[in-house]
Every structure is written in C-alpha cells, then in structure tokens.
Amino acid sequence: MNQGLLLRFENLVQLRGTCRQLRALSSRKVCGARWKPVELSAHPVGSLLLHPHLWPKHRLISGALSQCRHLATKEETKKKKKKIPLMKGEVEIRQKMTVEELAQAMGKDIDHIYEVLLYTDINLDSVEPDSILREDHIKMIVQKSGMKYKSAKLKEEKERKNTDAVKRQVVNYPAVLTPRPPVVTILGHVDHGKTTLLDSLRKTQVASMEAGGITQHIGAFIVHMPSGEKITFLDTPGHAAFSAMRARGTNVTDIVILVVAAEDGVMQQTIESIQHAKNSGVPLILAINKCDKPEADPERVKKELLAHNVVCEEFGGDVQAVNISALKGENLMVLAEATVALAEMLELKADATGLVEGTIIESRKDKGKGPLTTAIIQRGTLRKGCVLVAGKTWAKVRFLFNENGKAVDAASPGIPVEIMGWKECPSAGDEILEVESEQRAQEVVAWRTYVEQQEKMKKDLEVIEAKQKEHRLEYEMQQQKLAHLTWRQRKAVLYKANKHLMFSRPKERTEMDENTLSLIVKGDVDGSVEAILNILDSYDCEDECKLDILYFGMGDISENDISLAEAFNGVIFGFSVKANESIKKLADKKGIKIKLHNIIYKLIEDLKDELNSRLPPTVVETTIGEASVLDTFCVTVGKTKIPVAGCRVHKGLLDRKMKFKLIRNRDVIWKGCLSSLKHHKDDVQVIKMGMDCGLSLDKNLEFSIGDEIICYEEKEVQQTTSWDPGF
Predict the structure, then answer these.
(1) Are 598 and 584 in contact (CB under 8 A)?
(2) Distance between CA 622 and CA 172 in Å, rounded?
(3) 331 - beta bridge partners?
(4) Angle (nearest 5°) at CA 342 between 337 and 346
(5) Greatest CA separation found in the chain?
(6) Which strands form 516-523's sheet, in the order they lie side by side?
(7) Residue 2 CB neighbour total at 10 angstroms
(8) Buried b / exposed e along 233-244 (16+ C-beta atoms within 10 A)
C-alpha cells in the first residue's frame, strides 16, 4: 500500500465497485493517478485529496471516486454550477473560453474536458480550470465529444437598426419640375484640344496653367450663352491614365461632346470615350477639332467612327457633327447651339424643392478652408446651413463657391458648386444626401461605418477560417506521420525539422526588401490619387519586383510620410503637391527619395525607372569571333597528352583574354578560357579573320572535326520591367 494513500478499509467499503477496483485504487502505477498525501488531523479519516486537473481519466477510477470528489477542495464545491442543457447537440463557442466555461457550455464536468485534452499535445500539468483555450482546441474538444459547434452571435447585431439615409422617391409632377442646365462632358484623346475648347468657351486661361497641356483633375464650370442659356461642363481628363475619372464624369452627364482631331482621326482614348458614353446611355455630339490645319480631313474622321457605331446625321444617323477650331475659336457658337438644341430635345428638368441630392465630382484639402468638394446638385436647392452626408463623412455647409471662387448663397439643380464645411474629405463619385440635423448625420455615418466594419470582419473571418482549416489539415497529417512516437520524440523531431527556419529568416527578409518597392503616393485631389492607384492596380510583374503601397492620400509631403518611408525603405511619389525645404533636408538626411511630378505619364516613367533599379542585372553575351575546327592532334607536355584543335577564324577575331565556348551539333558542351593560343609556333594574343591557329582548352576535352569555337564577351545589362501601364 502506497504511503501517500491514507485510506481506512472500514470507509472503503462505502465506495462503489468491487474488490478488484479497490486494489486498483491502491496501485499508483496501474491507474496513473497522482495522490497528494495529507495529515489525518486536517481531514476526516478515509478522505482522499486529489487535484481536480490531475484526476485519473479512466472511467474505472472516475466511477470509484464519485463519492469522494466533493471532498477534494472547498473552492471546487463553491465553483460547482448547474449544467446547461444542450439544444440539438450544438455548443455556442467564442474566442478565449476557459476550461470551466467550455464545460458549462457543453453541459459536461471539467473531468470530461481533461479527458479529451489527453488526445492533444497540450501539457495537462499547465492546465487549470481558469486556463484559456485556443479556438482550434475548443472546436476539437466539441467535435471529439460528438457535438457540433457554432459561433456565438453578438447581441448588437440583432438590436442595431438600419439608420442609413436614402434618396427620396422620384416625383414627376409637372408643377414641381423646373428646367435645369445640361451637364456636358468633353471627352477625347490626349492633345486633341479638349482643354483648349473649354478655354475658348468660358474665356479663361485654364489651358495655360495645365502642365504639359493635359488636364490633371476634374473641374466643373458654367458657360453662359448669349441667348441666356447655361451649360455646365465637366472637364474630364482625356489621358488613358484617367479612364476611371472619365467614367465617373459620364455618370452624372447628360450630353457628351466627343473631340477628335481632324488630322489624327480615331485614337485609343477616342474609342474608350465612345464606350463610356454608350455604357452610360448618354447621347453624343461630334466636335472635329483642328480643322484649320492643311492636313485636316473631317470626312475621314466621320467614316472611321462608323466602325464604332457612331453615325453622323449626313450618313442617316442621329449624331450631330461640327467642324471647329478651338485654338482660333471657329464655329464654337455652332457647337454650343447644337448642345442647347439637344438639351431641349431631352427636356431636362429637376425638382428644386425638398432635401438636396447630388454627386461629388472632386474633393481636395485646402490649408485655409479645410476639406473642399466640387459637386453637381441634382435635386433640391443647396443653401448655407444645410447638413449633408456623403460616404462616411458629413458636413454642415459653411460657404458655397462658384467656379470663379466667389461666394454664393444657393445652388439649384444642374449647377456646380464648391462646398466648404466637411469634417473629412469624401471620395469623388460619392452620393450627397441632405438630412434633417447634425445628430441624424452622425447616425448615418455611424451606420455606414458599422456596415463597412461588419463586411470587413466577415471577409476577415472567412480568410481566417480558411487558414485555420488549412493549418488543421497540415497538423493532422503531421500527427499521423508521428503517431508512433512519444510526445517527447515528436517535439524533438519537430524541433529538428524547423530549426533551419530560425537561421534563414534574416536572409529571407533581406531578399524580400531588395525585391520590393514600397510606395507612398500623395496627390493634390482625390481624383488624381484614384487615377494613380488605378494605374498601379494594373501592375502584373510581381515575380520581377513586388509593389507595396504603404500609404496614399491628399496634401503636401509631411514628416509622417518621411518616417513611414524610412521604416519600410520606401519612395515618396507626389503629384501636383509640394515639399518644403525642411522636409527635403530631412529626406536627404535620412536617404529618402522624394519624386514630385505635375504630369501623370512622367510620374509613371519615373516609377518604372525605380522598378528597373530594383531588378538584378542580367548577363548578356556578345560574340566577338567564330572559328571552325579543321583538324585535331595531341601535344605531349611532360607525361600529359593535351588535345589541340587546328582552327581557322571565319568571323571576327579570337582574343585569348575573352571567354570561349565549344559547340558540337548545336549543343554547348564547354565554356571557359583557353590554356594556349598559337599561330604556327608562336604564342599570340589575337587571331584575326582568315588566319589559322592552334588552341587548347583549360579542360581536357577531345575535339572533333567540324566543332565550332565561339569567342564572346560577357556584359552586365540592367533589366527593364515588363509592366505596361497602357501608354
């Protein structure tokens, strides 16, 4: 009888089981139980003190000690709670559950949890009732117990109500609807004269301020006609890089003026512009520009457009065609009258009463005014003091500005206006809705933020569960391979298998840094940043060099950008923004590159150069000379026979300093250097074309008549990325 077992046989009679079970209790080795010796003075005679988490996991002992368990500790008696009944064998689980909480959720006692944990690699000596279990262990315990698990739902999901703002119902009462100006977008290929046309129409010098003659971001303007009509123009960029901005411009557009240069004809961006207009269901007006040039051919342009289903009126279609010269101002009024006539046919009307609805065309940050947005009002009349919601931000309108920067009191449908008073910059293309109060605006923003968070959590959870499933399968396969080993042997095998990873991590990190270009993109307005990001989305050369966008936003270069670039060895690209002298000095001190540009394709070319610098150089072979083997023989040097080839140079020359290769039946069988090169009996350095020579290699190889000897030079050439941004 073990000394630690202080049992009196007169009390053991009360225990369940047979005499064989009692003998098993007294054998510590048979049952594997760990008993704690106690003093008789502290406990009743015949009592048995047993640590709860070290109780035997065999049913034999569990049944025999059923009457003694409640005597283990006083704390366990206090913690003992009523078991929760199970519904259809499902267990609600959550993250960071303790052993005791899981037992209660399953309707089992703690012993059952310890029994299941025997089948895992968890060290039971470290597990207490209040120990937190990992999620994969929780799921495994439930499954091993023959039950199903489901994630506990948050109560907030059921109680939260939809507080989003929505558009008003469309009302077609003639008494409410009033005429509004048409919203016109000018589209076309780069350098075909779009900005010059707008400049001529509104008599301003926008084109002279544009860098490189390319419009860099969307602006909205009103043109007042002599007859009193108004036309709202959206100046969308014509460059291929801004295809996303162009598409957004047509979403709020009533009419598209397609500008095509008479001497160039239909180009790539012209076709894209036609497609955007068709997708939006917007009618076209064709403006054939640069008709004052001698090489202009308007008829060829009209015929080329037939292939893209743009049929002019003279060919029986419904597209008006106007020959203009934006630079000289010829026929501009004819184009404007054609626009007004088409607008009258469309009968454009809107409801100027009720809550305001609109669309954000552009957003930017101003140092003095804060976040500003250019918007087109579509319903209602916008005034100072209105509370607006767009995306996940809101505004109480403080000031309204027209296209000339002058303050206005109100903006009716079809009128572009710049709005001041936003809490943050919304994204270009967001829908503007007016709400009743600031409290209501905060509710809408809170709901939209909550919905976005829930969607993100749902996607993250799907990714996490997929990864966990993958890791679980790997773990189970690994456990099956090591099932015949003890847990100590398993740990030793796993340590040896993963030991090399600890030493390879620094090297892998270095390689990753060398082949990764980290970027910080800053732009003047939201649309410019969006356009650059759309170009970067087309990057498909991850195998050459990875592209990692650390941060993007609006505004000038700041110290935070420098710190972030320093941490990740990144490069800062700025578009139409500035970096003051202190920022430049700080960047030079820390070795951070700041690249500022005002033209989009210049920025992309600079980015490609930066990508090229991250690529390792390639070795290029340049052939210097070629010779044919005409005869073979051997020369004895000491006791060694050296094969020698008698050759004739038929192209270029052979230079002993260069590298050579031996080609037989179009296969390269040797590369290296020559051990000797002789003309007759003289050692020479160079053999020119038409001369005979004898040569031997630095390796003992047998020559064959007809072999080719190639003399070449190796040069390192910088690689260039194969990424094509589309222009």
Answers:
(1) no
(2) 77
(3) none
(4) 145
(5) 124
(6) 546-554, 516-523, 571-575, 593-597
(7) 13
(8) bbbbbbbbbbbb
Tokens 């390796």 sit at which residue? Answer: 699
Residues 183 and 122 in one domain: no
Residues 6+ away with beta carbon under 8 Å from 593: 571, 572, 587, 610
Q: Please tell me the total count of domains within the chain.
A: 6
Average pLDDT over residues 627-631: 93
Reported as a pLDDT band with limits 50, 70 and 90, residue 393 is: very high
Check the CA dihedral 289-292-295-300 and report its sign.
positive
- Which residue(s) pair with 394 in the sheet? 389
Whole-angstrom distance, CA of residue 653 vs CA of residue 644: 19
Instruction: Assess if residue 481 is contained within a domain.
Output: yes
Specify which of 264-268, 465-469, 630-634 reaches the highest per-range mean pLDDT: 630-634
What confidence score (pLDDT) does residue 502 get?
A: 53
Whether this model's pTM surpasses 0.90? no
Q: How many Å apart are CA 222 and CA 181, to the nearest integer? A: 9
Which CATH number do you get for residue 534?
3.40.50.10050
Residue 418's domain comprises 357-435
Q: Tell me if 377 sits within 8 A of 356, measured CB to CB.
A: yes
Per-residue CA distances from 337 to 227, 291, 331, 341, 450 (Å): 10, 19, 10, 6, 49
Which are the contacts of 220, defined by CB distance < 8 A and separation ≥ 6? Answer: 232, 233, 234, 235, 361, 362, 374, 376, 403, 416
Residues 429 and 312 in one domain: no
CA distance 372 to 393: 12
User: How far is Cα 620 from Cα 234, in angstroms, rounded to an integer?
Assistant: 51
Q: Both 245 and 367 in a single domain?
A: no
Nearest to 253 by CA among 226, 276, 224: 276
DSSP assignment of 486-542, as one string? -HHHHHHHHHHHHHHHHHHHHHHHHHHHHTEEEEEEEESBHHHHHHHHHHHHT---T
Same domain for 194 and 141 = no
Instruction: Please write the tens of the pLDDT for every residue from 9-19.
Output: 334 334 334 34
CA 447 – CA 443 distance, rounded (Å)? 6
Same domain (yes/no): 523, 605: yes
DSSP class of 159: H
In angstroms, the CA 565 to CA 559 distance is 10
> Do 293 and 387 fall within a single domain?
no
With residue 710 as reference, give the H or E element that holds it: strand 708-717
Q: Tell whether 185 and 146 lie within a shared domain.
A: no
Strand partners, 553: 522
Query: Is 63 inside any structural domain?
Result: no
| Same domain flag for 206 and 345 | yes
> How far is it, in rounded angstroms, from Cα 90 to Cα 14?
38
Inter-residue contact 359 to 428 (CB < 8 Å): no
pLDDT at 246 over 80: no
Residue 660 within any structural domain of the chain: yes
Rounded Cα gap, residues 238 and 194, in angstroms: 8
